[in-house]
């Protein structure tokens, strides 16, 4: 763990990779360190925002160094968000070919595990989901689409994601969901946040 | 007493409702937003006896005209701008009493960029995640004001103004804007000469500036390494350097994460002054 300066109200924790980020974010979130007002995980880092009226940056950094990462969350006692998917995406066949399996096997693999939201980004409500048991790498599309519909269920690199609103994008779209990832009418507009658990359910 | 409703007659180039934003939701991809110059919003609220975080109107480069639908006490802070009631000059940074039908107008500022209008009781607006801030990046919060927008006022609070008048240094926004800059997290992505230049040369605020950030113009900063940074969390006041080398200083509506290296972060207390810098003005960073 490396701690990098980030102004007078925050610091950046740099870690080895996304699995490390998930584990340390879970540990830090559970530790509820005095003075921490935001934890912003990303692919290899966690930004820690501090209310320096409550605790100094160095005091919080010392506590952060002591907090043990948490292992994979046991799915039996944690809430899992079920995302119904119609696997009719335009890139399903391409993804199957890239992985050397049939489209049906892609669907089974996608739905057979619990995914963890490692971090959010790109657009409000967009969570980068990491596979729980059987990670697979899927390259982005060679040519990004100028418009990907809201609700598109997609893959890129080691991540799965669901487009919260229509936007340009280069991820491989394998299906679509009617579940709203982002809805300002809800008390919490973003359905998923860092640490959320997700299971995709085939409703094709 | 029935509370007043304000009707916007002219919104100016950009007027939005703001408070101190919605903290605590960055891990869901939602930024804090809120007043670009938080200290001016706090002061406007104190002048009318509100809680510091009450909803105000943030007026960018003046031009707002609105009509009071009932008696109200208002105060205008921030940029140096002429404040008029029915065409007659009133003091800024002090409480102004309005009666039904009065027109309040904010002129184009002679210095500074953003004005804050507070009303005793606070403007009433729909809240998302606990805040009425208009976030121009995520689209959260009320829409920017336009001609015809009606803004109700919350029933008068029982607090008394903490201050009646706040004297402001007349030259507060003039000349070169000096900002404290803490280097990092990614200053090691740039050549030493570039980092020295960042801290010694003046940077021009360009017209490509808004609530998300201000683009600065100067000798491009050069990277000391190849490759791309994986996206990481971005703090308010971050000076991010895209590939072309011209820095962007992130303000209230900054993205939650970014994929370009942040060479340094402006001291939190100085971000308010950065938000008052106008296109054409010079900024100088001093290491903190």
- Strand portion of chain A: 25-35%
Neighbour order of strands in the largest sheet of chain A: 5-13-6-7-10-9-12
- Going by CATH, what is the homologous superfamily of the largest domain in chain A? Cyclophilin-like
Total count of domains of chain A: 2
* Percentage of residues in helical conformation of chain A: 10-25%
| Classification by helices and strands of chain A | alpha+beta
**Discrete helix count of chain B:** 3
CATH class call of the largest domain in chain A: Mainly Beta
Spatial gap, N to C terminus of chain B? 51 Å
* Chain pair sharing the greatest interface: A-B, 39 and 35 residues
According to CATH, what is the topology of the largest domain in chain A? Cyclophilin
Rg calculated over all Cα atoms of chain B: 20 Å
User: Low-confidence spans of chain B: pLDDT under 50, at least 5 residues?
Assistant: none
Account of the protein in words:
The complex is a heterodimer of chains A (204) and B (288). Chain A is an alpha+beta fold and 204 residues long. Chain A folds into two domains: 2-66, Gyrase A, domain 2 (2-Layer Sandwich), CATH 3.30.1360.40; 75-202, Cyclophilin-like (Cyclophilin, Beta Barrel). Chain A is 20% helix and 34% strand. In chain A, the strands form three sheets. Chain A has a seven-stranded mixed sheet with strand order 5-13-6-7-10-9-12. In chain A, helix 3 packs across helix 4 (103-111). The longest helix of chain A is centred in the first third of the chain and has 14 residues, at 18-31. Chain A is elongated and about 55 Å long. By secondary structure, chain B is mostly beta strands. Chain B has two domains: 5-152, no CATH class; 177-287, Cyclophilin-like (Cyclophilin). Chain B has helices at residues 38-47, 192-200, 268-274; strands at 5-11, 14-18, 56-60, 64-68, 72-80, 83-85, 88-90, 96-98, 103-106, 111-119, 150-152, 177-183, 203-209, 213-217, 232-233, 238-240, 248-250, 257-258, 262-266, 282-287. In chain B, the strands form four sheets. In chain B, strands 12-19-16-17-14-13-20 form a seven-stranded mixed β-barrel. In chain B, strands 7-6-9-4-1-11 form a six-stranded antiparallel sheet, with no helix packed on it. The longest helix of chain B is centred in the N-terminal third of the chain and has 10 residues, at 38-47. The relative contact order of chain B is 0.19. The model of chain B has no long low-confidence stretch (mean pLDDT 93). The interface between A and B is large, with 39 and 35 residues.
């Amino acid at each position: 763990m490396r701690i990098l300066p980030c102004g007078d109200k925050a610091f950046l924790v740099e870690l080895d990779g996304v699995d490390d980020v998930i584990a340390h974010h879970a540990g830090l979130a559970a530790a509820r360190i005095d003075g921490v007002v935001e934890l912003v995980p990303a692919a290899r880092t966690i930004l820690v925002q501090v209310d320096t009226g409550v605790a100094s940056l160095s005091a919080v950094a010392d506590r952060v160094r002591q907090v043990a990462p948490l292992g994979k969350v046991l799915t039996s006692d944690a809430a899992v968000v079920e995302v119904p998917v119609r696997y009719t995406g335009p890139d399903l066949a391409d993804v199957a070919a890239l992985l050397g399996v049939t489209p049906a096997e892609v669907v089974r693999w996608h739905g057979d595990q619990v995914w963890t939201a490692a971090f959010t980004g790109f657009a409000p409500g967009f969570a980068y989901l990491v596979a729980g048991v059987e990670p697979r790498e899927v390259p982005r599309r060679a040519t990004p689409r100028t418009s990907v519909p809201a609700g598109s269920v997609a893959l890129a690199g080691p991540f799965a994601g669901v487009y919260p609103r229509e936007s340009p994008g280069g991820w491989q779209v394998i299906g679509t969901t009617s579940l709203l990832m982002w809805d300002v009418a809800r008390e919490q507009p973003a359905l998923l946040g860092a640490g959320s658990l997700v299971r995709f359910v085939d409703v094709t | 007493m029935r509370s007043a409703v304000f009707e916007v007659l002219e919104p100016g180039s950009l007027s939005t409702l703001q408070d101190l934003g919605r903290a605590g939701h960055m891990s869901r991809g939602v930024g804090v937003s809120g007043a670009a110059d938080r200290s001016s919003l706090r002061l406007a609220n104190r002048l009318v006896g509100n809680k510091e975080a009450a909803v105000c109107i943030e007026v960018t480069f003046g031009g707002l005209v609105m009509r009071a639908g009932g008696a109200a006490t208002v105060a205008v802070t921030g940029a140096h701008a002429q404040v008029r009631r029915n065409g007659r000059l009133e003091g800024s940074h002090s409480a102004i009493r309005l009666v039904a039908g009065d027109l309040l107008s904010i002129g184009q500022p002679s210095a500074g960029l953003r004005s804050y209008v507070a009303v005793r009781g606070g403007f009433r607006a729909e809240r998302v995640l606990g805040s009425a801030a208009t976030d121009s990046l995520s689209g959260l919060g009320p829409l920017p004001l336009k001609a015809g927008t009606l803004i109700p006022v919350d029933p008068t609070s029982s607090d008394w103004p903490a201050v009646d008048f706040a004297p402001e240094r007349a030259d507060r926004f003039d000349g070169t804007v000096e900002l404290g800059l803490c280097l990092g997290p990614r200053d090691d992505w740039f050549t030493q000469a570039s980092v020295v230049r960042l801290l010694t040369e003046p940077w021009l605020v360009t017209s490509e500036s808004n609530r998300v950030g201000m683009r600065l113009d100067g000798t491009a900063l050069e990277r000391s390494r190849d490759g791309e940074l994986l996206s990481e969390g971005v703090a308010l006041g971050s000076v991010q350097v895209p590939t072309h080398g011209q820095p962007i200083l992130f303000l209230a509506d900054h993205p939650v994460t970014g994929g370009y290296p942040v060479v340094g972060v402006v001291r939190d207390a100085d971000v308010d002054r950065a938000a008052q810098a106008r296109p054409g003005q010079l900024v100088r960073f001093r290491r903190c």
